[in-house]
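In practice, a research group might receive sequence data for several interacting partners and want a quick structural hypothesis before committing to experiments. The following worked case mirrors that situation: the sequences arrive first, and a predicted assembly follows.
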Amino acid sequence: MSPGRPSLSDAQIAGFAAIAVLVHLVEAGIPSPVPGIKPGLANVITLIVWARWGLRSAVWVTGLRVLVGSLLVGSFMAPGFWLAAAGASLSLGTLALATGWNRALPRLPLTVVGASALSAVAHVSGQFLLAWRVFVPHPGLLHLLPLLLAMALALGLATGWLAQRLLQRLPATTADGYTSTHE
Amino acid sequence: MSLADRLLVMVLFGVVGLSFAAFWTPGGPATEAEIRVGGELVATLDLSHPGEHHIEGHQGISVLRVEPGRLRFVESPCRNRVCIHRGWLNTAGDSSACLPNRVSVSLRGSGAGAVDAVNH
Amino acid sequence: MDERLKQFFKRAAWGVALALLFVWLAQRQPEHDQVVIEEFLGLGTLINVSVYLESGQTEDQFDAAMHDIRPMIAAYQQRWSVITDGGLSAVNQALAKGEAARIDAELHPLFARAAALSTASRGLFDVRVGGLVDLWGWNRQEAFGTQPPDDEAIAATLAAIAAAPALDAAHYGPAPGVQLNFGGIAKGDAAGKIGASLRAAGFEHYLVNMGGDVVARGRKGDGPWRIGVRHPRPPRAEQPLMGIVTTRGDETIFTSGDYERYFEFEGQRYHHLIDPRSGRPARGLTSATVITSDPVLADAASTALFVAGPDGWRDTARAMGIDQAMVMGADGRVQATQAFADRFQASTGVAVTVLP
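A structural hypothesis for the assembly, expressed as tokens:
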């Protein structure tokens, strides 16, 4: 953890995870025009936490989201859960890479937009690999990969932009790690 | 977006472009096949389970072979071989028939890019 | 607990409750499949009729329409078949006896179309090739020929056709040695009739697939109908399509190819598309695809373009008023008109050359 970047308290992590689960559920309730393609708005929360409070907090929030989300939808330990977990792991992996990059090259930093595009593509790749290798070993599925990656890139840029806008509006953190609200 | 962002996004666009060059073909993969004899549905085959299926038609047995994601006629009592010449079928929306034996197959699937019919 | 946290969790709980409400609402109205499909065998092929139901239309209405369409197609097959007893068979029997044949009124419209299309295609499409079709054995559904016919038999049939009068709608013959075969046009006509019946029953969004030749109208919900075009020689088994066409309104897409109805003899492939000039399978192309709004024209033109070959297809298309066409040569090269190439979504590795 870099200095001046306090990590979140347990309660705050739970709070952000709850928001992420909420976003995830709302998204699940909206029918998608193309089956299997979702905007991934819950990732906005992960990105905000990553950009403001660092990788460790983002890993916690995302892990909780996947776990609680699947328990609520009832897909815990079912294929859907493993798909979400695979996607989340790879996407967190790329966020770790982005953290490393920013630490190594502080003068050429990646912002939340680039990280979002990268993690969205990684998310879809992770899900696809698992689906293709384990659940549906089906040569035809490979033809869908380019389409999925293109959608992921576009949606990743969109969610990244959204996260950036939200970060600009999010009040600065106080020294003790709580966000100060201005209500 | 920072300079690093722009570079990264350019690389990602390249990766997506390469994946199109490597894998993209329009037409969605079929996931199941409906088998009809004389127009009546007799079986629905899951194309993720390989195997051979013997379908009793009006003249004899038509043999269908299923491999992951595809299906073909391998034997049929017809002599004109149109059904066998059709080869492997793997696109949702495609269909084939052994007319003399009145056995037809229609592939179904709902992936992105599935077609409603195959012109041949 | 911190006051703000308390407030936050209260809001989150409300949010979760709202989210669950959304999920419940979404699942309460499952998107039911609004495309209904019926398949049956007719005209020597598999006929697949898909209809997109608009609000208020039911599957029962579709079933009722299909209930009328099936016997109509059976009667149509009887009328135009060269092997069962019907209107066209009666004409052929009269011709075989060396007599002039009077043509039933119900056959007149398609006879007139066939005559006009034969003229437009400069004889590349010709229904008078029935004798050649018989010689090669393509009229036998259960078993095609296994070897090419004698050269003399082909020459004699060609001479008979050359000496015969041009097609006329009301009466024909005498034309000794000539038999009529409407196989290159009847499928298109029948597909058009199925479409007309569906429209009469109130369906405006349908797709009729006659063993690979497709007539489409309207849309499939909020998207167009998507038609894959089969690759005559698929480079890889996973890639059976040359590409995709999405339909615009009322359209017909027909392909004539050498890859299904054929036999092999001494290493040579003999397919069913006979060149009326040589009496033998047309050489030079592996497929010809045509898009136009008129199914009868599409059927005849795909045959004529295939027969015209790599050097003649473009002029034949122009002469028949076809501006969307694509052919694949025996060398694997793909050529198309500008209007076809503009809308065709080609598969990877399929390079389409535009021929102006």
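Before designing any experiment, note the following. Chain C touches chain B through 50 residues (CB under 8 Å). Chain C is about 40% helix and 25% strand.
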